[in-house]
Amino acid sequence: MENILKDSFSESTILSEAKKAVRKPPLIVILLVLLAAFTAESFLTNSPMLQLFPPIFQSAVNMLATAPADIALSVVFIRCIEKRSLKSIGITGKHAGILLLRGCLIGFISFCATIGILLFGGTAEISLAPSAGAGIFLFYLGVYLLQGFSEEIIFRGFLLVSEANRTSVTAAILISAFFYASAHVFGTGFSALAFLNLFIDGIYAAMFLLYDDSILCIGGIHALWNFSEGDIFGCQVSGYTGDPNIFQIKIKPGYELINGGLFGPEGGLTDTVIEFSMLLIILILVRKRAADRSAGKNRSVSPHSSKVS
């Protein structure tokens, strides 16, 4: 698998820029930085200051307080400690609009597929939710975009790329996926199945980042998945209460293994199907690119590629 990844990502700007880092901190140092970020995030999440805001804005205020802090901490460490460029995070202007739009569509469609399976299987019910208005809807869209990209930067642009600079790409993908899934352990209703789903999510997210050589598509996927889950359909988002603005999904009791129960759809077998499907798609794309590049190398060194005088 490592050879396939090397061939597929051999022209990755992210990995080549990462190699220019002046310092390559050990994993324990990076984990301490992440721990500091999550400790501060936990403090803000449980702060009584949130109660000063109307209920409809409390989750947004929480995300607006934590997401920029996570981004800032990651970027400062990357630029000032490792001394690598923002290109190594996947921040690029090349095809930016297309990549972001594609990611948003994938995120929205994949979550709609999850809801469709739950409704078709009779493990959830749907109803219209009282609308807070177009302004609140768009406001939350912006908030979820910020929150989604903050997690992609800290777990993929920071942790994944830093580890890929020290170990193999395969190991870096697995390490980043493990700690990404572990970061959700305090969500209400967290389970071993939720961990598995998020672990798979972390693997395909890492591969999307390196395949696209950009954080924009996977950032869009992450953001619109969460936005659809919490705001459009009003589900629990990894154990945290959503803010329904269009629909309200009611998870039926007794089907927790399928619908995820209190953790939300990400904790059920329905999500496992979606996560494995996403992983299969990116694996096919990565293998195809690796095969194409390997064939190209073979043609370039073929003895028939040059004339014999």
Describe it for me?
This protein is mainly α and 309 residues long. The chain has one domain (2-289). It has helices at residues 2-8, 13-18, 27-45, 55-82, 96-120, 134-164, 169-182, 192-212, 216-232, 256-259, 269-300; strands at residues 124-128, 247-251. It has a two-stranded antiparallel ribbon. Helix 4 (55-82) runs parallel beside helix 6 and helix 7 (169-182) packs across helix 8 (192-212). The longest helix is centred in the last third of the chain and has 32 residues, at 269-300.
In short:
This protein has 309 residues and is mainly alpha-helical. It is built from eleven helices and two strands. The chain has a two-stranded antiparallel sheet.
Major sheet: arrangement of strands: 1-2
Instruction: State the helicity in percent bands.
Output: 55-70%
> Mean of the pLDDT scores?
90
Low-confidence stretches: 305-309
One letter per element, helices H and strands E, the order comes to HHHHHEHHHHEHH
| Proportion of beta-strand residues | under 5%
Gross morphology is: globular
Largest sheet: 2 strands, antiparallel
Structural class: mainly alpha
SSE blueprint and pairings:
Blueprint: H1 2-8, H2 13-18, H3 27-45, H4 55-82, H5 96-120, E1 124-128, H6 134-164, H7 169-182, H8 192-212, H9 216-232, E2 247-251, H10 256-259, H11 269-300
Antiparallel strand pairs: 1-2
Helix pairs in contact: 1-11, 3-4, 3-6, 4-6, 5-9, 6-7, 6-9, 7-8, 8-11
Overview features:
two-stranded antiparallel ribbon; single chain; disordered C terminus; mainly alpha; 11 helices; 309 residues
